[in-house]
Amino acid sequence: MSDDPGIDLLRGKLIRLKAENPEGQSKLFVDWIHDSEYWRLMAYSPHFPWTQDGVKKHIEKELEKDDPRNVFFAIHKLDDDRIIGDIGLDGISYNHGNTYVGIGIGEREYWGKGYGTDAMNVILRYAFTELNLHRVSLTVFEYNPRGIRSYEKCGFRVEGHAREVMHREGRRWDIIHMGVLREDWQALNA
Amino acid sequence: MINPIATPLFDGTFARLTPVDHEKDPEIVAGWTHNAEYVRMTSLQPLRPLTAAQVKKQFEQIDKDMDEGKRLFHYAIRAKDDGRLIGEARIEWVEWSNGTAFIKIGLPDPADRRKGIGADVLRLLLRFAFRELNLHHIEVVLPEYNVPALRFFEKHGFKIEVRRRQAVNRGGRRWDLISMAILRPEWEARHE
Amino acid sequence: MRDSGELTSDMLRGKNIRLSAQDMEQAAPHYFQWSQDAEYQRLVEGDPFVPLSLKATKEVNERDWPEDDPCNIMFLIRANEDDRIIGFANLDYISWTHGDSYMGIGLGDKTCWGKGYGTEAMSLLLRYAFTELNLHRMSLTVFEYNERAIRMYQKCGFKVEGLNRDYHFRDGRRWDLVSMGILRDEWLELNGYTVS
Questions:
Q1: Nearest CA to B140 among B127, B128, B129, B150?
Q2: How crowded is residue A10: how many other Cβ atoms within 10 Å of its Cβ?
Q3: CB-based contact (8 Å) between C119 and chain B?
Q4: What phi, psi does B58 have (nearest 5°)?
Q5: Which of A42, A110, A147, B50 holds its CA 20 to 30 A away from the CA of B118?
Q6: CA of A174: how far to CAs of A55, A144, C25, C39, in Å?
Q7: CB of B69 within 8 A of CB of B75?
Q8: Which of C10, C21, C193 lies nearest to residue B51, judging by beta carbons?
Q9: Which secondary-structure segment (H or E) carries B39?
Q10: What are phi and psi of C148, to 5 degrees?
């Protein structure tokens, strides 16, 4: 099975992935970051008060670096082009053919409606048929069952638990490691 | 009762943990980067031999990283008897609020292995991580072909937590990448 | 089938030569000497032969081979007996997503010609490319008149993939530029690895 190289690679059923835009995105990002639930679903490190200027400079710096080991996208809705989140590959290791992926849907009204799953499928297609990687890894927090279900739908399998690695709200939580091999993903999408 | 604060944190039985020496160490460390067996056992980055000047630049970057992020602790391992540079060790990617970090221990010369130096260094690192940095979960990541290391950490109380399937491609075939970890209560129980 | 024992082998060292990092301080005097040698230069270099000064040699090499470029890797070839620098070996224009790269070898020290050192360096470079970087194919170009090199590359498994006809003009006549390539599976099979 192979895709026609001419397909609209970054377009899904509900969303499209586009390049990051520091000017247009920094206001949105800073609002999402200040939603503590969003932060705690997505980030391992403690929350801190990013400013809009700080976010803008951070994105600009990453774009300038042009590091081949990572690529980030903004997630746009297909119907009205509104940005609802971001997704990216990080730690791309070409000699082994693997990478990590991370996603965050900032706009709450789009949680639990398939937008994240769609974006994940698009980036997996990019990773497997454009970057030609062999596997994609991710980590998800024990307290995020919605995330775990979404990743399973895309073909990710649980590969282990890092025990009690997170300390939040007075108790410890595991981080769950998941991975999908190209052959798994291709079988799912044949 | 001995005042525990007086415990020398970086002096082992056979080895010491010390800062790297920007003048004397780069030449030796450059030689390590040419040692294919050592690199492939301890690193996932592809083998890439460096000159002493390039190693010196790396040391400068490590200093910068240590200072800026306060998430990295990088040491040279020196033999206790003659001060010879015999390896490197680090605690890295420290997440303070969660109490987690990764460790690495490397002894490039096989003649320095299986002599208790590795166990000595591990003891120092874990003691520092649990009693000075107050961390909770210490992890080591190893390719499945590094059987001696897997056995070593298992012997010292680490448990396998994650097996990333086929994450490593080396020597013409794929291998799993294994994460092992020890928790603070487990370490305390072993050191009662 | 090769197993993890393969992983403990000294990948960068052969019987007679080894590959090391490019220390420009040490290499520059050798590059300078070799750049005065027309026969050597016309075998490795398509641009017209122009002997350079030591200073220019250093500058050109530093410019063409920046240290932190992820798309090229430069090695020196050293003789095992006394560790002296005798040549260079490199991977260039590495294309990571496609898994393709160009490679080049030059033995500037003529006392080392005809002893199999080039073949040895090429074998080390290929093993590095195919079992450490896990690239899919290696490409190279060689001048039609460099018959010794073409034979050596074929011995290592390279196949001629095409000719750029009449590409060079030297010594009063035109010559083709020969493109050769080898695939990872071909190399693995030739060298006793299990191909999945």
A1: B150
A2: 18
A3: no
A4: -65, -40
A5: B50
A6: 29, 11, 51, 66
A7: no
A8: C21
A9: helix B36-42
A10: -60, -40
CA dist list (Å): B141 to A23, A28, A139, A178, B180: 39, 36, 15, 16, 6
C149: its two tokens: 């090199």
User: What letter represents residue A25's amino acid?
Assistant: Q
CA neighbor of A133 nearest in space, from A101, A90, A93, A91: A93
The answer to whether B173 faces chain A, any CB pair under 8 Å, is no
Which residues in chain A are closer than 8 Å to B100, comparing Cβ atoms? 162, 165
| Nearest to B168, CA basis, from B43, B48, B49 | B43
> C133 touching A, CB under 8 A?
yes
Average pLDDT of span C58-78: 87
Residue C49 has a CB neighbour count (10 Å cut-off) of 14
Cα C118 to Cα C106: distance, rounded to the nearest angstrom: 8
CATH of domain A15-188: 3.40.630.30
What is the ipTM score, two decimals?
0.77
B188: tokens are: 């305390």
Of A44, A162, A172, the CB nearest to B179: A162
Q: What tens digit of pLDDT does each residue of C10-51 get?
A: 899 999 999 999 998 899 999 999 988 888 988 888 888 888
The token duo for C11 is: 């990948």
- Find where tokens 């990216």 sit: A88
Does residue B96 contact residue B129 with C-beta atoms inside 8 Å?
Answer: no
Q: DSSP letter at A7?
A: S
Tell me the pLDDT tens digit for each residue of B65-118: 888 888 999 999 999 999 999 999 999 999 998 999 999 999 999 999 989 999
Asked if C126 and C187 touch (Cβ cutoff 8 Å), the reply is yes
- CA A73, distance to chain mean position in Å, is 9
Contact check, Cβ <8 Å, C134/A97: yes
Structure tokens at A96: 């082994």
Q: For chain B, first and last CA: distance in Å?
A: 16
- Residue B23 contacts by C-beta under 8 Å, 6 or more apart in sequence? none
Joined together, the tokens standing for residue C40 give 């050597």
Tokens of C68: 């932190």
Closest chain C CA to residue A93 = C96
Per DSSP bridges, beta strands A15-19 and A71-77 are antiparallel
User: CB under 8 Å to B153, separation ≥6 — which residues?
Assistant: B140, B142, B180
Listed in sequence order, the residues at least 6 apart from A78 whose beta carbon sits closer than 8 Å to its beta carbon are A11, A12, A13, A14, A15, A16
Domain borders along chain A are 15-188
- Is B44 in contact with A96 (CB distance < 8 Å)? yes
Q: Which two tokens stand for residue C60?
A: 């050109």
